[in-house]
Amino acid sequence: MAGEAAAQARGPEVEELVVTGSRVSEAKVAIGTDEPTATVSITSDALLSAPAGITGLKMLESLPGFNVQANDALGMYEFGNSVSVRAFNFQQIGFLLDDVPMGRSDQFGGSPIYRYVDNENLARVTASSGAGDVALASYASLGPIVSYISRGPAETFGGRVSYSRGSDELLRAFGRIDTGEHNGFSAFVSASTVSGELWRGPGTIDRDHYEGQARYRWSTGGSLTFQTVHNKYFDYDSPSITKAQYAGTAGDIFGRSGREFAYIGYVPVPGAAGTPATATSLPITTAGIPYSNTAYNQYYKFAVNSREDHLYALTLKTPIGENVDVSVTGYYEDKKGYGVSPEAYATSLASHNAERLIVPGLFAPRGIQYGLSTIDGKRKGLTGNAVWRWTIHTVQAGAWYEDDDYHRTQQRYNVANGNPDGAPLLNEPVHLQRNYTSNRKTTQIFLKDTISLLDGQLKVDVGFKGLDIDYEISGYRNPGDFINRRTPTITDKWKDLFLPQVGAVWSVTSRDQVFVSYSENMALPRGADDIFSAASPLAPGPDAEKAKNYELGVRTNRPTFNASLVAYFTKFDNRLQSFASPVPGSTTTETFFQNVGSVEAHGAEFSGQWKPEFLGGKVYFNTNLSYNISEFKDNFATFAITGNRVPDFPKWLFQGGVTFEPTPGAILNLSARTISKRYTNFLNTETTGGYTILAAYLDLGDGVDWGYLKNVKARINVDNLLDEDYLGTISTTINTPASFRPGPRRTVQVTLSTEF
């Protein structure tokens, strides 16, 4: 009876599918068969067709609805990435690595997913673009959830190595060794390294990454898995630019324009006061201070980032009898890092004068300032769930608890002789900006029942989750705290213990399904530390953002064709915005974050794969097409924006490709990604044009063995094949011209790989 109930819960069997290819995701997971929400996946083979070293975030651009922008072809520059989907941006999406929730995605202090994965170690990436399962732990998600599922230890001894060279002196190497399974024990370790030059301006980018897992499986079922990830990252920044700078009409003294606009790689000579500025000479603007000219802040060595992240997790999965399975994961994360930004002499002098009579130990500025921000933190948590199968019911229940501690400092220091190329003088602070700690304690519970009806043809999900977040920030949050000699402790709490989710999947035939879902979500206010650092302790904290997501879709699996089509409506309330207004209970006007209304989005997403019989199985096509309208529904302050489009959310997104396998061991792929125009500010007074990017790869040697080596392959990837010149990532504004990061030029990468 238990076996029959489990079969009913799984639904009717579907015969083997034919829509497969060497670089196409397997049909069932690609379109989310049996899922009550719009859920799609990229499987391992499809991931391995991407350029080696591509980050875990940029790979999402192949999924329907995801608008991914990156500063470089691999998406490695952390502050140059952006993501939007439906009504949400990067900080409103939840991310998980296996059973570990990744928390917030802030580059400062957060755990963005791209620091924790290598493509070669992933079995699949699964994304729900509007309604992630209540069983998935996240306090960041307003609906969208992305899970990165790793390839566990292999059952047989072996390994994989690859070596890549590419444009801009790119070097990437990867290696993995699996022990194989011996009396229930198996393990793997992997390492990768990436280095190269920035494609835009002087500077380098470097990343060293290590992963490992050890697993013991009992013969009676169940397993205990330890996994760890270590990531070390360093890079130089490149600047965001306005349209005027891009067009060369901004009067840049260094003569910069176009997509090559970058920080300068030399120090201009100080010139006499009152003389014209040139590309090689900057006039002294303060007598006796050779490097007082503001333009010295364009020197590249004053814009760097460095991070180290270490993650450890232990997962126990075990059956309890025939009908109950339990999974528990404990995890611990340790992180640290720093960033450097420049500050001009005049700015530092004003800030120094505001603090020098209050804060002891300050030094007068010598010239350009070395702005050092440091971060460190520890994140630890426990998540667990149980699954009980009983007649037509599959009941899941679970909980998650996390304690996240974070410490940030930010100070300005002199450099030797005030020279941009001088050594930092960390014993000469000029003024202090931040030194605070923050803490988030999160508890989430969930309960879900999946009911199998009509002999498994209809599956209904009914569930809810509850989320409770306690927040505290303490210390010097901004210069005003130093000046007012205060170290406030500010607390807030967001709680909703009933966030429902319902959904249903009806298998009309063994190959065709209709699905529908509704979900409610709550999230920690985006950028909470910045929100509570922006104003005096009197400024109130905002309510949590909340969202409602509706979906209706169909999917089909055919012998030569599979597809999914979903229509959706999304609304999120308590949208956050910073603007000046009186602090409640006083007459003081301050600029602080407030809840200002809602955003609504509606649209449709299509995803499909086709392997036509008349082409002999040698050619197959895949495509994603998304239509999205995201609009503001309320005005705020003096800004009339009701009905305006939300900036950086394109109306149309298309990605399509054709793959040709003329003979075994040879694969040629050509793909295109098209994005329509985007608004760049809330008033919709500025736009940036749409663009189309072509990419191609040639893979040779799949299935070719050479002695002990298997699948000895060579792959050539070309990104931005036609060298399209476009503006990608947008730093949106309310009513002023935005700034952008130009999209990367054509890049070429060659990868040699083998398994053993």
What would you note in describing this structure?
The structure is a single chain. The radius of gyration is 27 Å and the shape is globular. It contains seven helices and 38 strands. The relative contact order is 0.13. Helices cover 6% and strands 51% of the residues. The strands form seven sheets. It has a 22-stranded antiparallel barrel. With 756 residues, it is mostly beta strands. Residues 1-21 have low confidence and may be disordered.
Please name the defining characteristics of this protein:
five-stranded mixed β-sheet, disordered N terminus, 22-stranded antiparallel barrel, mainly beta, 756 residues, 7 helices
Short description:
With 756 residues, the chain is mostly beta strands.
* Major sheet size, sense and barrel closure: 22 strands, antiparallel, barrel
Sheet/helix structural class: mainly beta
- End-to-end Cα distance, whole Å, is 44 Å
Rg over CA atoms, rounded to whole Å, is: 27 Å
* Unreliable residue runs: 1-21
The portion of residues forming beta strands comes to: over 45%
Query: What is the average per-residue confidence, as pLDDT, rounded to a whole number?
Result: 92
Give the helix proportion (percent range).
under 10%
Q: Tally the helices.
A: 7
Overall shape = globular
What's the total count of β strands? 38
